[in-house]
Amino acid sequence: MAKTRDFYDVLGLPRTAGQKEIGAAFRKLARKHHPDLNAGDKEAEARFKEISEAHEVLSDPKKKSLYDQFGSNWAAAQAAGVQPGAGGGRRGGGFRTAAGPSVQYRTVTPEEMEDLFGEAGGFGDMFGSIFGGGRARSRVEASEVETPITVSLTEVYRGTSRTVELPGGRRVEVNVPPGVKEGTVLRVPGLRARVQLAPDPLFTRDGKDVRVAVPVPLQVALLGGEVAAPTLKGGQVQFKVPAETQNGTKIRLRGLGLPDPKGGPAGDLYAEVKVQLPVPMDDRTREWASEQPR
After folding, report:
1. Residues 175 and 235 in one domain
2. Strand ranges inside 198-286, DSSP E
3. Residues 27 and 81 in one domain
């Protein structure tokens, strides 16, 4: 089974990258690979999903600290109560566990870490070394793990799925239904998956409704006309802009928002007018502007 790519590599960043660099890298890559700007391109869609997952973890200081220590097993470590920031990195150092009123601390060597997270090791072995043997490990495996899953707004529109690895190496598939709300907990045996929404470079969610900024030429805003807005479905939709439309006006496009997870009517898409000034201005426009009252 293919391994998950390193999240820092996904965003093209060194492991020393700070939050500002992580955010900037995500925005740049998200704009490039957003499915609505690459309609029908499955590779771009997969890349956008990968970028969103990497950003969701690295933009959260606690999750980032766990990821720096435990790599792709960070979610299982979080679910087991392992506390982040206990020194060292993924190839050594220490870790601490929230196992009762007092905090236990144990330092491991790089060789031990390699055994724990290498091919021959296993995350379940870590539970035994930290919590004291097979009985504690059995309790962890028998409990219900909770982990976040990050989805894009486009995936919320269409519905999607995620494969989550549980302690012990077991993998389960979580189906994410269309229109799901952020914060919803999706349950499968042994797992509670809490839905998180990745930032979108084009759209903003408001319940079932979605907002998107649409550039409108000054002439169209003044005299009226048609412009196009991107949609979550993919492609664009043409709509009319009335004459004398002010900058910031929101035009409602019915039924082009998110589906209702309970089967009700879909939400709407609100196109927010962003009037574009003619730059550079020609002589005629400059003359007209100079004649207007100030």
Report:
1. no
2. 203-206, 209-217, 225-230, 236-241, 250-253, 269-276
3. no
Looking at residue 238, which CATH number applies to its domain?
2.60.260.20
**What Å distances lie between residue 142 and 145, 166, 189, CA to CA?**
9, 11, 10
pLDDT in tens, 171-221: 889 999 999 999 999 998 888 999 999 999 999 999 999 999 999 999 899
From 197, 225, 253, the end of a domain falls on 197
Q: For residue range 220-244, what is the model confidence (pLDDT) as tens digits? A: 999 999 999 999 998 999 999 999 9
The strand ranges marked E within 9-153 are: 82-83, 93-97, 104-108, 145-151
Q: Which domain holds residue 107?
A: 61-197
Q: Which pLDDT score, from 0 to 100, does residue 82 have?
A: 77
Are 33 and 44 spatial neighbours (Cβ–Cβ below 8 Å)?
A: yes
| Number of domains within the chain | 3
Examine the fold and report which residue of 59, 81, 109 is the final residue of a domain before the chain moves on.
59
CB-neighbour burial class of residue 10 (10 A; exposed 0-12, middle 13-18, buried 19+): buried
Q: Identify whether residues 181 and 272 lie together within a single domain.
A: no
pTM above 0.85, yes or no: no
Give the residue carrying structure tokens 């700070």. 18
- CB-based contact 148:75 (threshold 8 Å): yes
At 99, the amino acid letter reads A
- According to DSSP, the β-strands at 191-197 and 185-188 are antiparallel
pLDDT of residue 175: 92
Cβ atoms of residues 149 and 163 within 8 Å: no
Is 117 in contact with 131 (CB distance < 8 Å)? Answer: no
In a domain, 293, yes or no: no
Q: Is 121 exposed, middle or buried (0-12, 13-18, 19+ CB in 10 A)?
A: middle
Q: What is the pLDDT of residue 188?
A: 87
Q: Is 289 within a domain?
A: no
Residue 208 falls inside a structural domain: yes
Strand order in the sheet with 250-253: 203-206, 209-217, 269-276, 250-253
